[in-house]
Amino acid sequence: MSRLWYGKKGRKHQPVNHKYALITTREDINSKQATNIKTDLEPEAFRPNLSDPSELLQPEQIEKLTKSLPPRTIGYPWTLVYSTAKHGMSLKTLYRTMLGLDTPVLLVIKDSDGQVFGALASEPFKVSDGFYGTGETFMFTFSPDFEVFKWTGDNMFFIKGDMDSLAFGGGGGEFALWLDGDLYHGRSHSCKTFGNHTLSKREDFIIQDIEIWGFE
User: Fold this and answer.
1) φ/ψ (deg, to 5) at 50
2) 54: exposed, middle or buried (Cβ count in 10 Å: 0-12, 13-18, 19+)
3) Per-residue confidence in pLDDT tens, the chain, 216 aa
4) Angle, CA of 78, 144 and 71, to the nearest 5°
5) According to the model, what pLDDT value does residue 32 have?
6) pTM of structure
7) How far apart are CA 143 and CA 213, in angstroms?
8) How far apart are the first and last CA of the chain?
9) Which residue, 54, 72, 95, 124, is the most exposed by fewest CB within 10 angstroms?
10) Which positions ≥6 away from 177 have C-beta within 8 Å?
11) How many Å apart are CA 86 and CA 26, to the nearest integer?
12) CA 161 to CA 29: how far, in whole Å?
């Protein structure tokens, strides 16, 4: 029921129904268009340019890894620094290809079970007396689903290299990832540095292929 109200001089007034119109400004339109463009382009931002086609990673796997990389690598093309297909299965050769590099490196392994996993190292691989690297280092696996294992802060056992092996992580006497000097045998175990589970299907695995990518 509508109520009447009385103004000055006792005149009756009907209630006023207010109607509002939504005004769209040019700024609103431009803002919406910019949002749509950004949404459309977002997937492209995670598809870096590769110097060579990857034999181990699918495009969607590359996109997932790119989203987890340190900010200082974003926008740089991926450069294939080492691959067993090109350079052979030798840790000594691997170290030689790292000389002169000043970039994080992405180690990608495919084992004889067809599983893909690896590590992002904060700096190139080298022979060292002890562990080196920073908390940018992480482990990853696509076995069976994509998972990334970042530094837990528990210790600083990031990377250790000698002429006979290359290892990542530590604590409790186990490595997150260990490769032998012939790049033939490997081992993965849970460790405190990254809080990871076994990256491969089995703790001991046979390496089929390796790729190492730099960002420059």
Assistant:
1) -110, 135
2) middle
3) 444 444 444 444 454 454 444 444 444 444 444 344 333 445 555 689 999 999 999 999 999 999 999 999 999 999 999 999 999 999 999 999 999 999 999 999 999 999 999 999 999 999 999 999 999 999 999 999 999 999 999 999 999 999 999 999 998 889 999 999 999 999 999 999 999 999 999 999 999 999 999 999
4) 30
5) 44
6) 0.79
7) 20
8) 75
9) 72
10) 117, 118, 119, 139, 167, 168, 169, 186, 187, 188, 199
11) 56
12) 56
**How many residues make up the chain in this entry?**
216
The span from the CA of 182 to the CA of 91, in Å, is: 6
SS3 sequence of the chain: CCCCEECHHHCEECCCCCCCCCCCCHHHHHHHHHHHHHHHHHHHHCCCCECCCCCCCCHHHHHHHHHHCCHHHCCCCEEEEEEHHHHCCCHHHHHHHHCCCCCCEEEEEEECCCCEEEEEECCCCCCCCCCECCCCCEEEECCCCCEEECCCCCCCCCEEEECCEEEECCCCCCCCEEEECCCCEEECCCCCCCCCCCCCCCCEEEEEEEEEEEEC
Q: What is the token pair recorded at 39?
A: 């949404």
